[in-house]
Design a protein that fits this description.
This protein is an all-alpha fold and 91 residues long. Helices cover 88% and strands 0% of the residues. The chain has one domain. Helix 1 packs antiparallel against helix 2 and helix 1 runs antiparallel to helix 4. It comes from Tabrizicola soli.
């Protein structure tokens, strides 16, 4: 039983690290895309307008499906473990 709990804790730590690394990576990719989008448009709105545009885009990204799907990395292993435990003990 202790070995099982240790495996769960290790799995949770690895999942959390993977989640946060991929979240940071996804945010950096989106921010870079927004910066390139702003630079590609003609006209100059100044640095403040550029930062406001990027911040609005990042707020929209936070609520996007792509960002929310990263939670699967953290939740899916625990769902699989629970399903396996149920099937092995009660099915």
């Amino acid at each position: 039983m202790i070995g099982f709990l240790r495996a769960i804790v290790i799995w949770a730590v690895i999942g959390a690290v993977a989640f946060f690394v991929l979240r940071i990576y996804g945010r950096s990719l989106r921010r870079e895309a927004l910066e390139k989008e702003w630079d590609a448009t003609p006209g100059d709105g100044g640095q403040a307008a550029r930062e406001a545009y990027i911040e609005r885009g990042m707020e929209a990204y936070e609520g996007s499906l792509r960002n929310r799907l990263l939670v699967i990395i953290f939740v899916l292993p625990f769902i699989v473990i629970a399903l396996l435990l149920y099937l092995m003990n009660y099915a």
